[in-house]
Amino acid sequence: MQPPGAQQPPLYAPGSGDFTFVSSADAEELSGSITTPDVKLNLGGEFIKESTATTFLRQRGYGWLLEVEDDDPEDNKPLLEELDIDLKDIYYKIRCVLMPMPSLGFNRQVVRDNPDFWGPLAVVLFFSMISLYGQFKVVSWIITIWIFGSLTIFLLARVLGGEVAYGQVLGVIGYSLLPLIVIAPVLLVVGSFEVVSTLIKLFGVFWAAYSAASLLVGEEFKTKKPLLIYPIFLLYIYFLSLYTGV
């Protein structure tokens, strides 16, 4: 028995090497389990529980394997925007070519000053398709004439002192094939009438040549305009011959 007021010895005193047994009731109070601590990441103000494998990789210096790149907004662009295709711009240029009269109020210089590639290519391909007559080689031949014919007009314009780029000539020559496409179904109807068919062909060629020449032949040519208008006219005659087979 210990005198009143004396302190009870500790149940476990590792410093002195003494061990004291405890009762079962006291043991229940001391019982428990050891749990694995949760590791959480603070990402943008939100805590996300991290798995054991993730923690292991980060501790070994391989955390970069778990990084996820943010989506680039530029990768989510529509296909037409990604290919730089503006359908409204192409439609406006088509109307400028088909209606070349200045009195209609169209800003026709946009065809030359703001050239594009997909619009003229679509026009040339469409003209090639209606010119097939069962011969698929016509498609590649028309595209070749478009590219090298535009190159010839470009070189001639530069020699004559014109300030024009090859892309501008390529676009104007391509878009100006539209009048020949317009007269194509008419020729199918009146093909048996030789005189009417010839007049329609001449009208289509003059229409296409005037539309192209009015855009490419500027004031800088002055008295040299016929030197550039004439090869443009011959180029569209050749395009029409590829369609009619003459």
Summarize the structure.
The protein has 246 residues and is mainly α. The chain is built from eleven helices and four strands. The chain has a two-stranded antiparallel sheet. A two-stranded antiparallel ribbon has the order 3-4.
Pick out its properties.
mainly alpha, two-stranded antiparallel ribbon, 11 helices, 6% strand
3D shape: elongated
Helical run tally: 11
- Residues in helices, as a percent range: 55-70%
The largest β sheet comes out as: 2 strands, antiparallel
**N/C terminus separation:** 133 Å
pLDDT < 50 stretches: 36-48
Structural class: mainly alpha
Strand order of the largest sheet: 1-2
How many beta strands in the DSSP annotation?
4
Residue fraction in strands: 5-15%
Radius of gyration: 41 Å
Pattern of helices and strands: EEHEEHHHHHHHHHH
Average pLDDT value? 74
Report on the structure:
The structure is a single chain. It is elongated and about 90 Å long. It has a two-stranded antiparallel sheet. A two-stranded antiparallel ribbon has the order 3-4. Helix 6 (118-130) packs across helix 7 (137-159) and helix 7 (137-159) runs antiparallel to helix 11. It has 246 residues and is mainly α. The chain has helices at 24-30, 52-59, 79-82, 87-98, 109-113, 118-130, 137-159, 166-175, 178-189, 194-216, 225-244; strands spanning 12-13, 18-19, 39-43, 46-50.
Topology record:
Elements: E1 12-13, E2 18-19, H1 24-30, E3 39-43, E4 46-50, H2 52-59, H3 79-82, H4 87-98, H5 109-113, H6 118-130, H7 137-159, H8 166-175, H9 178-189, H10 194-216, H11 225-244
Antiparallel strand pairs: 1-2, 3-4
Family: Belongs to the YIP1 family.
Subcellular location: Golgi apparatus membrane; Golgi apparatus, cis-Golgi network membrane
Main location: Golgi
